[in-house]
């Protein structure tokens, strides 16, 4: 999650083809919400483009240097290493990462057990921080490259060599006026209005989406989908409260408790997180069975540390505990979590939990702060898996932010009392990412049949009338 005044709005024409009519949706807290869903499929993911990669952070001048970095390939840039981010209120019960058996992505991650790390005492000092299966319903979202629009509704030049099919004169004024009428074109503006209004919340850049949707009461038509590779999937990383294997928990408490750093220029870096997820620690420590409070954030990297050479980590800030993320064309993230209500404080993003993925280069330089000190603004990749947009909402929205864009006003129901188990499947063969509610156990090995069943659960969708 980053705050940004940059708005990226897509080709309105493409929204007209399958957009949900306004009278089927509910307007709440500045956003439209449509149908509850069990699965979201992002299709057409991946493009050839470039982003501005950080090459230096100068403490003497408080400036960062960047250079253009090209990317391409299936799912790019989400085939690059990703870090996994959480914002409270959240209680994480399980987390895991799977790769196809005997794959290079799996073998390159060193199996490092942090189980005994929590035996070390952690102290803190002053913080300088700036700041059950159900009937399946599926949302299918096609992501495409689109027109970039700033906060004034003016078209701006996109970063890199993104192909923009056509420009459509969309403005915030038109989007805000749209709910007054009720024709098909206005429905598309309502969709865009949702995108624009959500920018006031801690969400990011937008572009175009084409989507089809089914409500939970709609009978869907099944089509067969196969796993991206044949055979089993091996668990490369795993967490349960108090225990980790090949996972490293971090937060933004650098310079406060023996890890990371702080400076007048760039504030707190990332640091090892204590077992509460909130304070810092001097060494890698598993998260306990705790509910992390509203507005507090923690991150999971792999257990494989960056070695300072050309090992895929890129440039990272001096003095931080730098670890690899989770890369590859084919990978599966699994989660089990609760998001109970927390209205006890007045933190920024109070009672607005979220789970999202970032290009792992972003937190290793500067996740929050000067845009030139991170590749985020130039499209190196963020995927919001589950995000509450307004305080106290029970609707978790998903969205993609990079040189492409896709999202939906359909939602998963926030798990306030019973935990939600989900799998996020990256399929580099057909350029899709599936977010699927599941009920199976997250064992050491996932069978091909299990993965196929998840993909086919997310592969059922009914066309809108």
Automatic annotation (TrEMBL):
What is the organism of origin for this protein? Naumovozyma dairenensis (strain ATCC 10597 / BCRC 20456 / CBS 421 / NBRC 0211 / NRRL Y-12639) (Saccharomyces dairenensis)
| Swiss-Prot/TrEMBL keywords | Cell wall biogenesis/degradation, Glycosidase, Hydrolase, Signal
Q: Would you tell me the Gene Ontology cellular component terms?
A: fungal-type cell wall
Q: Where in this protein does the record put region Disordered?
A: 103-134, 198-226
Q: Which residues form the signal peptide?
A: 1-22
Instruction: List the EC numbers from the record.
Output: 3.2.1.39
Family of the protein in this entry: Belongs to the PGA52 family.
Composition bias type Basic and acidic residues, residue spans: 110-123
Q: Where is the composition biased (Low complexity)?
A: 208-226
GO-annotated biological processes: cell wall organization
Please give the catalytic activity noted in the UniProt record: Hydrolysis of (1->3)-beta-D-glucosidic linkages in (1->3)-beta-D-glucans
Tell me where in this chain the Cell wall protein YJL171C/Tos1 C-terminal domain is found: 231-454
Q: What is this protein called?
A: glucan endo-1,3-beta-D-glucosidase
Which PANTHER family does the entry mention? PROTEIN TOS1 (PTHR31737:SF2)
An example of a GO molecular function for this protein is: glucan endo-1,3-beta-D-glucosidase activity
Signal as a keyword of this entry, yes or no, is yes
Q: Which residues form the Cell wall protein YJL171C/Tos1 N-terminal domain?
A: 38-100
- Which Pfam family, giving just one, matches this sequence? YJL171C_Tos1_N
Sorted alphabetically, which InterPro entries does this protein's record hold?
YJL171C/Tos1_C, YJL171C/Tos1_N
Q: Which residues cross the membrane?
A: none
